[in-house]
Every structure is written in structure tokens, then in C-alpha cells.
UniProtKB/TrEMBL annotation:
Example of a GO biological process term: peptide transport
Gene source species: Bradyrhizobium rifense
Annotated InterPro entries: Peptide/Ni-bd, SBP_5, SBP_5_dom
Main location: periplasm
Keywords: Signal
Origin superkingdom: Bacteria
GO CC, one annotated term: outer membrane-bounded periplasmic space
Pfam families reported for this sequence: SBP_bac_5
SUPFAM superfamilies: Periplasmic binding protein-like II
Signal peptide stretch: 1-22
UniProt record similarity statement: Belongs to the bacterial solute-binding protein 5 family.
Protein name: ABC transporter substrate-binding protein
Domain Solute-binding protein family: 74-439
Amino acid sequence: MMFRMLAIVAGLGLALAAPAEAQTPRKGGTIRMTAPYGSSFTSLDIHTTQRAQDEIYAKGLHRSLYIWDSAEGKPIPELAKEAVVSGGGLVYTFKLRDDAYFHNGRKMTADDLIWSYNRIMDGTKAYPGARYVRIIEGAAAVEKGQAKEISGLKKIDDFTVEMKLTEKVDPAFYLFTALTSIYPADEAAKDGFIQHPIGLGPFKFVEHVPGSRIVLERWDRFYKPGKPYADKVIVSIMGEAAARDVAFRNKEIDTSVLGPAQYVAYQADPNLKGTIAEVAEVFTRYMGMNPAFKPFADKRVRQAINYAIDTDLIISKLVKGKAYRATGWLPLTSTAYDKAMKPYPFDPAKAKQLLADAGYPSGFEFEWTTSQNESWGLPIVSAVIPMLDKVGIKVKVKQVEAAVLSEVVRSGDYQAFIYSQQTGPDPQAALKCFHSSTPQSACNYMNFKNADLDKILDEAGQSDDSAKRIQLLQKANALLYEEAPVWFFNYNKAVMAVQPWLHGVQLNATELTHQNVEDLWVDETSPAK
């Protein structure tokens, strides 16, 4: 199957659909996916973890109010059949599906949706999905312990919910990820739910072998007629790119995220180059700096770090071109991407001058927390260390496992970290991570506070004019560039090898590994019939 395709489309068309398949989808068989971002899953409670690793299995197990449609390049209604907008764009009345059954056989109702969103806003738990549910009026009050239930959610009947928003945003861009999955209210409160989760997705939970795999099997009462096609989905943990490479070549797995070295090798191999699927993802890779660590409280120091690093050289030589240079926070697939913005140039002399102006003529030392990730982890840090050393900045490396890093980032227990963060598909949601009202645990990982930025984002949130909103968001992005709370590294080019017998793979710009698995199918040439 010749699969190679690159989707870099401006505007909302973030991804292109895979080529149309001539064959009729085949029923049965096993889909063998990989979880490539670490040596474990964080939790079987998807509300608790923002890791892309965990959402791979959650796409089969759970469902949210909306779902991402890669062909359309936008979220579309999923558990909602329709939405009627009123109240000047602030009130959405959702008609829910009346044919969605949880894996215990009970039908989903409005009570489950309201219970799930209230759970996510429990401020004592700091669920990452709170950043999305917070757009509902009264959600922040629940988070702060000032109310028990979200006032902006109202049950009209068993299959109708009214939702009042705080801003004029499209809730579709906030309520499509697995972080906002709808749980069965009566079951999710029980202790055993975490060991044996129950969802609304096309596949039900069978087993979790920690450090190894999650196995799901077909749910026969799934609400989409004739789907899912496959009988079983196995998501195997394979954090090492070399291990995935061997397994893919041995036909033991159907999908394999390629690291930089494999990307180069597969392009050069006539037997493998046709298996490559590519998409420009809405992710920004960066080094975050803690303003509570004195040197990083000074904007000039943060700018100096951006000048001191030869970012283009790292992308070319280490990342092997499997990325796009970051010119700001918003990626080039964002609707608010500003083509006029230029990245920080490599200028060590300018870096030294800024450090001297900030009172650090001899530099300083900091601790940099990183995972082993080859595209944005330890290898990148190792390449940056001598560049910073040349301007007087010394680095102590603190290496942690990927699951630990995500908790370090959310807790603020670092001087600096290196990470990959989703920065789309909605630019307003991405930039809201820097609003002073957004908690660190949600996505304001640098605990950034800037009154001018807050004002711009608040104005964008109340604007009826889409063109004006884009202008305001570009202004906010430019302010972040100037403030430099991060080292702007790159925007990800996601690359995945797909076996020729696996069909229906979607070029998902929000995360290539997150597939709507009910649409995947394997033909009779699959070794896992």
C-alpha cells in the first residue's frame, strides 16, 4: 500500500484523509497497535492523565461529546446528535444519542455527561481535562470548592443537556479528547472501575498487563452500524524505537511510530518507504523555564537561551528533518499561525550581552529535567548543553521516565524541563494555557502570568468577529515570543509506518497515534487474522 503523504494545510484543513480504499472493509481480525511514548501506561482512568500514550487505548475504550474527524480537519458531534446555539453564542443545547450503551449494557443519559464533567472539575484531584471543561459557566467554582455542581450544565431530559459557556468559543474544540470522556456515573465512582474501566467506545476492556499491553475486544452494541470492523485491538508498549523497528520488520505489529533514525532508514528502503504515513501535528516541542528559579524570572535570560541554541542545526542533524522550526507557540497548521514571524536567530554574542544586562555576566547553573525521548528528550538536551556552556550557562541533567516527567511538569517541581505539548487544533485553547487564571496542573506549566496577555485573550474570547479574533490571537502569540517563557524548539512532523494489510488509518494532525479504531480494518494478508 503506497501510503506516503504529508499534510500541511493552512486553516482548519489540518489533515488530509488517507487515499480512498477500493476494497470493502473486512470484518474480523486483530489490530496490533503500539504505545511508543514510554515504558508504561499512566492509568486506566483516562481522566487523570494527559499523556498521548494513554489516549491511544482510550480512543477504543471511551467516547466524548465530539470526536476528531481527520478528513474534515475538525471535531464533529459524536455522543451529541445535534447542537442548537442560542444566547448570543454562549448557550448550546445538545441532543444526545439515545443508542449509546456502556460496556455493562446500560444506556448513556444526560446524567452521565453531567456527572463526568463535574468529576473532571474536582479541584482536589487536578484532572488535566479541567482546562477544557472550564469553558462551562460555573465549572471554575466547582474547581475552587465554591460549588458542588457546574451551574452552566442543565439537564432538560434524559437525552438533552443545556450548556452555558463563559466565552464565545466552539465547545467542539474543547470536548473531543479522551480527557473529557463520558463515564457511567453509577460505576465510575466504585473502586474497581480503575482496574476494569467501562466505556462507550467500539471496544471493551479485556486485560491490562502492566508494562506490556492493553487488550480490547469488539463491543457488539456499539452505536455505529457495522462497526467496529476488527474483533480485537492490542496496544503494546514499545518505548524504544529500535524495538518497534524490529517488530515491524518481523510483521509482529501493524503500526510503528518512527524515530529520526528509522525515518531516514525507511525512506531509503524500497520495501518500507511505501509504508510511511506523515502529518504535521499541532504539537510544539520546547524547554519550559520556571520563573520561581531566579535567573528565569528575567525575560532577558529566557531570551538569551533562545539566542544561544543553534536550533536549526539540532533539527537537521539530530531530528533528521522530522520537524519544523518553531517560530512561536502556535504551530504552522494553526489557523492563527503568523507567517511573518521569524524564529530567534542563533546569536551567542547577543545571548552573552543579554545575560550580562540581566546581571549574569558569568552565567549560572540550572537543573534540566528530561525523559529519554529521542526526538525531544535526552539526546536534544545533550546537544544543547555545550551550546549553553559557551555563553556561561551550566546544565545539570535530571533524567526521569516519561510518566514521571508529565507529573513533574504539572506540579512545578523543576527548574527547567523539555516537553512536547499539544498546541492546537484551536489556537485560543492553546494560548489559554498561558492565561493567569489557568492552573499549572491544567496546562500553564510555566505558571506564566502576564496582565497584557490576559487582556488580549479575554478580548478574543468575547469577540464575535472571527477575523478580529485571529488578529488578537496572533498578537498574543507575538507577546509570548517576546516574553520567551520557553525555548521555542520545533513543531512536530509525525511519522508512522503502517503495514500494507491495515486499512483506514487517519492522518490525525492532533496526534497521529490517536486513531478512531472503529474505522480500521485488516485484510486477509494480516498475520493476525
